[in-house]
Amino acid sequence: MPSESILIIGGGPAGLEAARGVADLGYQAILVEKRDRLGGTPDSANYAALTHGMRDASEVMGEMAAAVRGNPLVEVRLNTTVTAYSGAAGDFRVTLESDGTQKVVEAGAIIVATGFDHFDPGRATQQYGYYEYDDVLTLTDAEAMLKEKKFVKPSDGKVPERVCFIQCVGSRDRQIGNEYCSKVCCGIASKQAIEIRQLLPQCRVFIFYIDMRMYGYWENEIYWPAQEKYKVQYIKGVISEIVKKGDRLMIRGEDTTMNRPMEVAMDIVILSVGMEPSKGTKEIARILGLAQNKYGFIEPPQGSLDTVSTSVEGVFVAGAAAGPKDLDDTMGMAGAAAMKAAGLVRRKMSLRSSPPHPALSPAGGEDKGEGVLDG
Ligand SMILES: Cc1cc2nc3c(=O)[nH]c(=O)nc-3n(C[C@H](O)[C@H](O)[C@H](O)COP(=O)(O)OP(=O)(O)OC[C@H]3O[C@@H](n4cnc5c(N)ncnc54)[C@H](O)[C@@H]3O)c2cc1C
Ligand code: SF4
To answer: Judging by DSSP bridges, how do beta strands 80-88 and 91-98 pair with one another?
Structure first.
């Protein structure tokens, strides 16, 4: 029996926006989140300010969560994951597990919004001493410090005089198998560089990059102000080693514009780690049997401009589960997934309620019934 409900897996920006969209279209959404809170990675990783507008991340995610929590058409289930499913488009039966208890729910369509994990810099061949030196951080560590408005050297609590970012850590790297660009880290490093300069005007900030990749508003709203207004210094270069010298970190590598070796002292080094599919994304892809690309992101049908369908009819994908995305891309995709899922459910429901086609009715000589049309 076709169901009018749409199951959304993941309560981050993509899942929240998809749930809101589904409810706006008049359908029932069941939003499943494995954590005990909504808000996704911006919430769990304590992001500071979010572009556009540099508003506090907790505030932005809190507003998005409130919009679904107060909606009678959205049922939120926290501490819940999906363990199995059966059925087909229009008529899925999905097993949800919460605190060891299993429950089967019916859904006409499913939207996967299970997001990303940050690349672990300890895994790379170039380790940059992340687990060795207290003053080597990741973008995520820096976000949490900026959120507290207290940006100091973790090793001794002193205010840093020189901070640098190293770009493309865990992305565009054939050796570790992540050849793709994570899309957001150039913009986020530039955003954090601005926040550091605002907080500590005396601190010099450098960004070492292979090439800067900005798109859309990131170029005008973040990249140019970082250089022109906040005097962040961008240096095209490859950093091969970080060593401790006294109470500072010595950065060694090559300035590729000048074609000469460089060695500079820093107080804090921030590794611009990329995005990888979350463990939850890989797990859900396995349970639902969804095609993934070689990195584990959920793959839309090849050669199609449909970015939200998957290899399984009736299962859609939104946000970073399908590849590195900023919030703009995530929101757009979530809206499209909500619309496609609602459209599919509407079609399946109307097939059920409309009388069978004469050619397929028993009187028409074919004893096939409406199930043929559903297939
Ligand atoms: C350091 C950093 C700063 C950033 N700052 C910005 C910014 O300023 N502006 C911007 O546009 N973008 C920014 N981004 C990108 C932004 O974080 C992503 O675009 C956004 O989080 C993607 O949302 P999502 O919902 O797809 O994934 P996520 O935020 O990862 O949410 C996925 C959710 O799914 C849940 N989940 C996972 N698996 C399961 C499962 N099996 N069952 C149930 N639930 C599950 C997770 O617990 C999580 O709540 C930043 C990224 C980084 C790394
Ligand atoms: S966005 Fe920038 S830092 Fe991130 S992988 Fe792409 S080029 Fe490298």
So the answer is: antiparallel
